[in-house]
């Protein structure tokens, strides 16, 4: 199963930093995360379902550039890393 | 010791002077306007002020009469067709000037030379005191730029420019987020030198990638120019080999997170930091404003608190809001809540300026 790792700010919101989820691409993996942590959805996705402008995701260390449809594949055992930029001071 | 201080704030530029043992505001310029940084150019005793007027753009002004009058200069312009490409998945966008984030004067041997670091990540130079600017193509055109990204802003930015006192052809810049880059030929070619830095906020396989390091501020010791210090998003790092390699300095108290660093001009082992709670919080640890000083190259740190608020203080100090003068004894700290403190003894004690200033972006002795 893919693993999702959240950076510290998001893990405080989620009540944990690492989650094993189902899914074959970024959107499916995130939907699996939202199924168990529904409050996270609005932190990661905007109102059009795209990854928020200041949220970045990496699959096995490679940045996710398709932030709208989130179609990048995630292998079983793959690692999805989600970080949030922290603006200003 | 420096007898004047430039304080750049959200609502103007304040010039403080020291007279009869006390600091006071001598002059206010650009009241109501967002002054992001200022520079005192000792080559011709001129002053520069960088403004960010939001809807009306970025501006640069120069004064030849110590701030009595100002004339507007040019600002760096990105050539048509240039794009901001970032390594955090944001779509490309046209490159345009967002902020002057670093401004340094060249040596006496290069009259009129200025270097400007900007958001969104371009380095520019001027040889006519800011009347015209040239994009430093050697850095901008590096393929690695596509993997830089914004730290606290939408785009990457150059906030630290260190001109080597041994040769003006040697310049090092630090980028949030893009590591440390060095040129040895005046800007024609560049190499990445953030080796040894570590970014815990990135996926583990990228944590040691030099090009992904979020340096918050980098300074070079003028008297020992092989010695550099960096306050990084992830902690403090130092280099003793001219910024070619970096070692983590884990002992900063009360925390390793912060934005600002200042190095003693004569002693590369003495530096000052202003620690804060890391990442998402960004306030002084325990509500106590502390300046952390090491005098032994980072082996040990002392918390300097005498005269600084020690309860319910939420003063955050930005990367350009800590400065030390050429004596190494006089320091200034300015905060996002408008607090300004000055020390005459290397930080052992601090006096709060008798002013309630707007949020402070930068302080600089003149």
Mean of pLDDT of chain B: 96
- Total strand count of chain A, please? 5
CA-to-CA gap between the ends of chain B? 10 Å
Strand residues, percent of chain A: 15-25%
Chain oligomer state: heterodimer
Poorly predicted spans of chain B: none
Give the biggest sheet of chain A. 5 strands, mixed
Mean model confidence by pLDDT of chain A: 90
In short:
The complex is a heterodimer of chains A (89) and B (366). With 89 residues, chain A is an alpha+beta fold.
General description of the model:
- The complex is a heterodimer of chains A (89) and B (366).
- Chain A has 89 residues and is an alpha+beta fold.
- Chain A has 3 helices and 5 strands.
- In chain A, strands 2-1-5-3-4 form a 5-stranded mixed sheet.
- The termini of chain A are far apart.
- With 366 residues, chain B is mainly beta.
- In chain B, 1% of the residues lie in helices and 38% in strands.
- Chain B is built from 1 helix and 30 strands.
- In chain B, the strands form 8 sheets. Chain B has a 4-stranded antiparallel sheet with strand order 3-2-1-30, with no helix packed on it. A 4-stranded antiparallel sheet of chain B has the order 4-5-6-7, with no helix packed on it.
- In chain B, a hairpin with a 7-residue loop joins strand 14 and strand 15 (171-176).
- The longest helix of chain B is centred in the middle third of the chain and has 4 residues, at 137-140.
- The model of chain B has no long low-confidence stretch (mean pLDDT 96).
- Chain A binds chain B through residues 5, 7-9, 12, 51, 53-54, 56-58, 60-61, 63-65, 67, 79, 81, 83, 85-89, and chain B through 87-91, 149-154, 201-206, 259, 278-280, 282, 316, 318, 336.
List keywords for this structure.
heterodimer; A: 89 residues; alpha+beta; 3 helices; B: 366 residues; mainly beta; 4-stranded antiparallel beta sheet; 38% strand; globular
Itemize the secondary structure elements and their pairings:
The complex is a heterodimer of chains A (89) and B (366).
Chain A: E1 3-6, H1 8-14, E2 18-20, H2 26-36, H3 41-44, E3 55-59, E4 62-63, E5 79-84
Parallel strand pairs in A: 1-5
Antiparallel strand pairs in A: 1-2, 3-4, 3-5
Chain B: E1 4-9, E2 12-19, E3 22-29, E4 35-41, E5 46-52, E6 58-63, E7 71-73, E8 83-84, E9 93-94, E10 99-105, E11 114-119, E12 123-126, E13 134-135, H1 137-140, E14 157-163, E15 171-176, E16 179-183, E17 191-192, E18 215-220, E19 228-232, E20 235-239, E21 247-249, E22 261-263, E23 271-273, E24 291-294, E25 302-304, E26 322-324, E27 331-334, E28 340-343, E29 351-352, E30 360-365
Antiparallel strand pairs in B: 1-2, 1-30, 2-3, 4-5, 5-6, 6-7, 8-9, 10-11, 11-12, 12-13, 14-15, 15-16, 16-17, 18-19, 19-20, 20-21, 22-23, 23-24, 24-25, 26-27, 27-28, 28-29
């Amino acid at each position: 199963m893919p693993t999702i790792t959240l950076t510290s700010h998001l893990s405080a919101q989620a009540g944990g930093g690492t989650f094993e989820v189902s899914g074959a691409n970024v959107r499916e993996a995130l939907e699996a995360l939202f199924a168990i942590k529904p409050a996270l959805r609005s932190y990661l996705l905007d109102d059009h379902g795209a990854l928020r402008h200041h949220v970045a995701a990496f699959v096995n260390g490679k940045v996710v550039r398709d932030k709208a449809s989130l179609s990048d594949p995630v292998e079983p055992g793959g690692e999805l890393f989600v970080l949030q930029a922290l603006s200003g001071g | 010791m420096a007898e004047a201080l430039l304080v750049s704030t959200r609502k103007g530029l304040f010039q403080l002077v020291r007279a009869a043992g006390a600091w006071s505001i001598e002059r206010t310029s650009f009241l109501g306007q967002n002054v992001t940084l200022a520079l005192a150019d000792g080559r011709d005793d001129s002053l520069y002020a960088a403004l960010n007027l939001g809807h009306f753009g970025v501006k640069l002004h120069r004064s030849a009469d110590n701030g009595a009058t100002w004339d507007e200069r040019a600002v760096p312009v990105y050539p048509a067709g240039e794009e901001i490409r970032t390594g955090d998945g944001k779509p490309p966008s046209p490159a345009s000037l967002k902020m002057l984030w670093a401004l340094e004067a060249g040596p006496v041997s290069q009259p009129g030379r200025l270097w400007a670091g900007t958001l969104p990540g371009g380095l520019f130079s001027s040889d006519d005191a800011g009347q015209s600017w040239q994009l430093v193509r050697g850095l901008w055109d590096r393929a690695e730029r596509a993997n830089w990204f914004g730290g606290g802003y939408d785009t990457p930015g150059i906030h630290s420019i260190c001109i080597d006192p041994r040769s003006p052809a040697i310049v090092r810049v630090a980028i949030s987020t893009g590591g440390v880059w060095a040129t040895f030929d005046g800007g024609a070619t560049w190499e990445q030198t953030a080796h040894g830095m570590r970014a815990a906020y990135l996926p583990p396989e990228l944590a040691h990638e030099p090009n992904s390091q979020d340096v918050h501020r980098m300074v070079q010791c003028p008297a020992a120019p092989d010695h550099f210090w960096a306050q990084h998003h992830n902690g403090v790092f130092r280099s003793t080999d001219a910024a070619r390699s970096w070692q983590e300095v884990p002992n900063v108290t009360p925390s390793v997170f912060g934005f600002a660093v200042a190095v003693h001009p004569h002693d590369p082992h003495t530096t000052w930091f202003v620690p804060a709670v890391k990442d998402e919080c960004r306030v002084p640890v325990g509500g106590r404003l502390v300046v952390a000083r090491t005098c032994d190259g980072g082996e040990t740190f002392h918390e300097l608190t005498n005269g600084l608020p020690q309860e319910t203080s939420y003063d955050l100090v930005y990367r350009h809001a800590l400065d030390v003068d050429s004596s190494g004894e006089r320091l200034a700290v300015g905060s996002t809540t408008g607090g300004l403190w000055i020390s005459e003894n290397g930080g052992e004690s601090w006096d709060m300026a008798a002013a309630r200033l707007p949020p402070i972006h930068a302080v600089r002795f003149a």
